[in-house]
Design goal:
The chain is mainly alpha-helical and 262 residues long. It is 83% helix and 0% strand. Helix 4 packs antiparallel against helix 9 (233-261).
């Protein structure tokens, strides 16, 4: 009994310490954002642009394929099955609910986690093993400003832009691909979606994307810089970062959906 209580208390304390360290890392990174007039801005800006390029532009082919396939599935199912039960007027609502509100931000976040989150953790983990982070500290360079801030901003900007691109490709591209099997005119199809779309759907989707970008960048950076000295720790840290990022993104997505729509 005492052993169980000891283990439970230890797990709770470790969890509290984890949340505190994540909070400190997030706070330090955002604090550095408001100190942009310091020296070294060109290096930080260059890293930011490289992160946007890798996280956003380089992910466009994968996002395009996934969004087209998902849009085709959702559009065909909604436009062919709903009229059977006399609910053809809800086609636009279903597409807005499924793609714009939920699956667009979530699937985009999963792609960003798989590509960029794992890359951030691996890169920072290798830098820790090679003592590069310690060298930065010895030279008096703020590691949070140089390593975490550009990755945080890059993930936020890229995730928001990718989510918008995903939604457009899923709705427009999915319709074009599935046009052979559909009899619904494009004007009527878009009219139903526009009537069902509200401004709250757009800004909630963008809020989710921004939060997902923060979660991915902070967790990936945290686990990467937690690597100690062995190369075998890098894949372990990457696995932890990917799994924890996906789980927390789903938790936040559920919480935000309940907050705004219930």
């Amino acid at each position: 009994m005492f052993r169980f209580a000891e283990l439970t208390g230890s797990k709770v304390l470790n969890l509290i310490q984890l949340f505190y360290e994540l909070y400190r890392l997030s706070f330090d990174a955002l604090t550095e954002l408001f100190k942009w007039n310091r020296t070294g801005n060109s290096v930080t800006l260059n890293l930011l642009l490289r992160q946007i390029l890798f996280t956003g532009i380089d992910a466009l082919p994968m996002i395009s394929v996934i969004s087209l396939l998902l849009g085709t599935i959702v559009i065909i199912q909604s436009t062919t099955q709903l009229p059977i039960i006399g609910a053809e007027n809800f086609v636009g609502s279903v597409i807005v609910l499924v793609i714009i509100r939920e699956l667009g931000p979530l699937i985009t976040a999963i792609v960003v986690v798989g590509r960029s989150g794992s890359a951030i953790t691996t890169e920072l983990g290798l830098m820790r093993i090679n003592r590069e982070i310690e060298a930065l500290e010895i030279m008096g360079i703020n590691k949070t400003r140089l390593l975490v801030l550009p990755r945080l901003l890059g993930c936020i900007i890229a995730t928001i832009c990718l989510t918008i691109y995903f939604d457009l490709m899923a709705i427009l591209g999915g319709y074009i691909i599935s046009r052979i099997q559909l009899t619904t005119p494009f004007n009527l199809y878009m009219h139903k979606i526009i009537l069902s779309l509200e401004f709250s759907d757009i800004y909630v989707s963008l809020i989710k994307s921004a939060i997902f970008g923060i979660i991915i960048a902070i967790l990936s950076s945290y686990h990467g810089m937690r690597v100690k000295r062995y190369a075998t720790e890098v894949p372990q840290a990457t696995t932890k970062a990917v799994i924890s990022s996906i789980v927390i993104c789903f938790l936040f997505s559920s919480a935000l959906t309940m907050m705004f729509y219930i």
